[in-house]
Amino acid sequence: MIRLGSAGVLTGALAVMLTLAAAQGETPAVPGAPPPGGASKVPTYWNDIQPLIAARCASCHRAGGIAPFALDSYAAAAPVAGLIAQVTQARIMPPWPPGPRTPRLKYDRSLTDAQIALLADWAATGAPQGTPPVTVPPAARPEKP
Ligand code: HEC
Question: What's the 3-state SS for the chain?
Fold first, then answer.
């Protein structure tokens, strides 16, 4: 009898929890967590592409850089997403000889297969921008007394 009683309490508690969860709708997304259900993630400029371009391309592809055009903003990179995918898949860019077929060298800018696939996926999904990071203005400097 005691056993049955506690099972009943547990079932009741579970039902209440489930009802609450259902009332809240979807479980709140945890920032940075993989999407529920393990659905494949669409790469976005702000999540995936901007850091990659900053690390591997923007030293040349920026205003005043040696490359003929900038890639260091969404407005600049999105229209040429398809071209970026092509030249990285062909390993034409980044134009730096160290890579999989050479000894390891310092300042190697070559891309991994995963990074090349990411750029290709981004182009194939229409170069989505995603959400820009929240920038907080710097705190005002306290006035000197
Ligand atoms: C060391 C400097 C340098 C780096 C790093 C670099 N590029 Fe370039 N890129 C160039 C130059 C210079 C050209 C122009 C080449 C030419 O006209 O022959 C160019 C051309 C291009 C083009 C145009 C190709 C075409 O056929 O018109 C694309 C697209 C490109 N780069 C993408 C990238 C991407 C993406 C990266 C990073 C993964 C990258 N580049 C990294 C210097 C660089």
Answer: CHHHHHHHHHHHHHHHHHHHHHHCCCCCCCCCCCCHHHCCCCCCHHHHHHHHHHHHCCCCCCCCCCCCCCCCCHHHHHHHHHHHHHHHHCCCCCCCCCCCCCCCCCCCCCCCHHHHHHHHHHHHCCCCCCCCCCCCCCCCCCCCC
